[in-house]
Design a protein that fits this description.
Elements (H helix, E strand, L loop, with lengths): L1 H16 L22 H24 L4 H19 L12 H19 L1 H5 L7 H22 L1 H16 L14 H9 L8 H23 L1 H13 L5 H17 L2 H18 L4 H13 L11 H9 L3 H7 L1 H22 L18 H19 L4 H18 L4 H16 L2 H24 L1 H12 L4 H15 L5 H18 L4 H14 L8 H10 L3 H11 L1 H12 L9 H23 L8 H14 L4 H24 L4
């Protein structure tokens, strides 16, 4: 009976969305091409499969997963099969699922069934690979590359081809860049018939955790939690100068602390904040830049930080709570920087507060229907994490609490049914997120597998050390560039794992602490979402604002200036990560806080009045001095900042322009 009720609800949802954009399109984690114009029947099939995937993941999270490759093969088959239906190969194929898409579904199904059935022989290394295995391995590689191409473009597919060619023909390259040689059979064995390639760590993260995060984003939209966050942000920040921009920062901080995804954050909050900012006087590219910057903070904001928090804790072999606490100060400094920057920008452009009639009354938050769906799940999440429960159960129970409270606050059975329809529809409409993420994760797993199998990480670390001359700062700069390049267009967790596999050896040889290394790499992995040329959060924000994405990227990088400096501060200021005695920690936090504030003023070109270019340069230099890892220079920088405030105050009073 439950199945028929679910089918009825999905049919109703399908009919109400035919030939329209999905209501919860904003849940998409990765922006890809427009999906196919599906028939009502195929649309219903997609929705049922999505709900089936979520149900399978929820059930196995509570009652125990299948053996790893078997669990992954079920989920990936369903997601990749949806990909061939949902994502067209080209613009001409948007109206019909082509024959080669159906063939792709059959072949991927065979490839996943093969590893499912032969799981134990594969794990016990008793399985003797034959022509069929190699053929199906090629099928999985080609399919993931093709679906990644359909999702985000050619760049990632080309990367897979290059890495595969390197694995097969890299022995022909002379010198350090070459390798000892690998047969195509051994490469396919590693990628397809082991847990080192497409069935490795990244697929594990996707199958057990990232899917739960996609569910969480959809549940937040359906239950109105995202709307409550937005209203709360309006109430807190809307009454001040530049209110819409501050609303963007506050709402993104609230949303990001739960979703942990910059692109999802932009899509969920930007559709409200960007038009609001434009209406009150912000240029479209500036409004989009503020939203993209604020949303990028979700990945570094506890308690979740996307999956990165838990992945880092696992790699460092420390409790999740430890990493969560250590990440608080850097996240607060980031939001201080962004709030300061938007305040200075608003003052320079004389942008006012939000009109009073648009600011929610404080009394509106007293209704249980408003605050219970927010507070109960948040309490559940924090209490479960603090009590040592797995992240998987913590997120799943948070989703369950959110939906349960939402339904429990209904006044009639018909309202319960209406709300259930809304929740199921939101979950079903998150198909694009699921499909794109699956394709990219499998593709990234192939890259990680090749890197690990051929020792590319060690070679690359040696190359970075050689180019950097064995010096710390040049090596850090090179590593930062490499990590951001690797993170282009792929989820932060995948970029982070790639970064660790490639450059961590170089950091160890230079004596950098393990915690500092991981935080450095993780922060730069998150920056790929806002750094050109492939910057998902910027693309989404630019699309909403109808602004040139390159201009948006420029403003985003300006507003996020401290985020580019923060990883280096981790290396030279261990106190930022609560290492050292209390005096060092407090001094470090004080210096970096002052430096952060004045850095924002310098990049915004305003303090107490508009700053000329020479004065902006001076302020930026003083802010960097204040954060310098030398006590004397830091004190000089702080004194200079204080003196500059006095000078700027006198200039503002006397209307002196320098």
């Amino acid at each position: 009976m439950a199945f028929f009720l679910l089918t009825e609800i999905l049919v109703m949802s399908s009919h109400s969305h035919v030939d329209q954009e999905p209501q919860t399109e904003t849940v998409s984690v990765i922006e890809g091409p427009r999906h196919r114009n599906l028939s009502p029947r195929l649309s219903l099939v997609i929705k049922i499969i999505v709900i089936g995937v979520y149900g399978f993941v929820a059930y196995t999270t509570v009652f125990g997963q299948l053996p790893n490759i078997q669990q992954y093969s079920v989920i990936l088959f369903l997601c990749l099969a949806m990909g061939f239906i949902f994502l067209p190969a080209s613009a001409k194929a948007r109206d019909k699922v082509a024959w080669y898409d159906w063939l792709g579904i059959v072949l991927v199904g065979a490839a996943c069934l093969n590893v499912f059935v032969n799981y134990w022989p594969i794990m016990l290394q008793e399985h003797i690979a034959g022509p069929l295995d190699y053929f199906l391995g090629v099928v999985m590689i080609v399919s993931s590359a093709e679906l990644a191409r359909r999702s985000i473009g050619n760049s990632f597919a080309i990367l897979i081809v290059l890495f595969t060619c390197y694995a097969l023909f890299g022995h022909l390259i002379p010198g350090k860049l070459g390798h000892g040689g690998a047969s195509w059979q051994s490469v396919l064995d590693m990628l397809y018939l082991s847990t080192n390639g497409m069935w490795g760590l990244l697929t594990d993260i996707f199958s057990s955790l990232l899917i739960l995060f996609i569910m969480l984003g959809a549940a937040m939209l359906a239950t109105g939690v995202s709307d409550t966050f937005m209203d709360l942000a309006k109430y807190i920040g809307g009454r001040f100068r530049g209110g819409p921009a501050k609303i963007s920062v506050i709402s993104s901080a609230l949303m990001g602390s739960i979703t942990g995804s910059s692109v999802t954050n932009v899509a969920m909050t930007g559709t409200i904040t960007i038009p609001m900012m434009k209406r009150l006087g912000y240029k479209p590219e500036v409004a989009a830049g503020i939203e993209a910057t604020a949303s990028s903070g979700g990945q570094i904001t506890p308690p979740l930080m996307g999956a990165g928090l838990f992945l880092m804790a696992e790699m460092l072999e420390v409790p999740v709570q430890t990493v969560m606490v250590l990440a608080i100060a850097p996240a607060l400094l980031f939001y201080l920087s962004v709030l300061s920057a938007v305040h200075f920008d608003s003052a320079r452009e004389n942008i006012k507060a939000l009109p009073k009639e648009e600011i929610p009354a404080g009394a509106s938050f007293r209704s249980p229907k408003v605050w219970l769906p927010v507070t109960v799940p948040f309490v559940v999440l924090i209490s479960m994490i603090v009590n040592g429960n797995s992240i998987y159960l913590s997120v799943l129970y948070t989703i369950a609490a959110m939906i349960t409270v939402f339904l429990a606050l209904s006044s009639s059975f018909s309202e319960i049914k209406e709300k259930a329809l809304k929740v199921i529809s939101a979950l079903a409409d998150s198909a694009e997120s699921l499909i794109s993420m699956a394709a990219l994760i499998v593709a990234a797993g192939i890259l990680v597998g090749v890197i690990s199998y051929l020792g590319i990480g060690i070679k690359f670390s040696g190359l970075i050390l050689d180019i950097g001359g064995g010096s710390l700062i040049p090596t850090l700069l090179l590593a930062a560039v490499v990590v951001m390049i690797m993170g282009m267009g792929i989820p932060t967790t995948a970029a982070y794992v790639l970064a660790v596999s490639v450059v961590i050896v170089a950091f160890k040889k230079l004596g950098v602490g393990e915690l500092q290394t991981h935080m450095f790499l993780f922060y730069f992995a998150t920056l790929s979402a806002i750094t050109p040329p492939v910057c998902g959060a910027v693309f989404v924000a630019a699309n909403i604002a109808k602004a040139p994405w390159l201009k948006v990227a420029g403003h985003t990088m300006r507003f996020a200036s401290i985020k580019y400096l923060m990883p280096f501060l981790f290396i030279f200021h261990p106190g930022l990560l609560m290492e050292g005695d209390i005096t060092d920690i407090l001094f470090t936090l004080g210096c970096v806080t002052i430096g952060t504030f004045f850095l924002s003023a310098g990049f915004s070109g305003y303090l107490l009045m508009t700053l000329s270019t020479p004065l902006r340069i001076i302020v930026i230099m003083l802010s960097i001095m204040a954060m310098w890892p030398d006590t004397i220079l830091a004190l000089i920088g702080i004194a200079g900042c204080i003196a500059f405030v006095g000078m700027n105050f006198i200039q503002a009073r006397r209307h002196i322009v320098i």
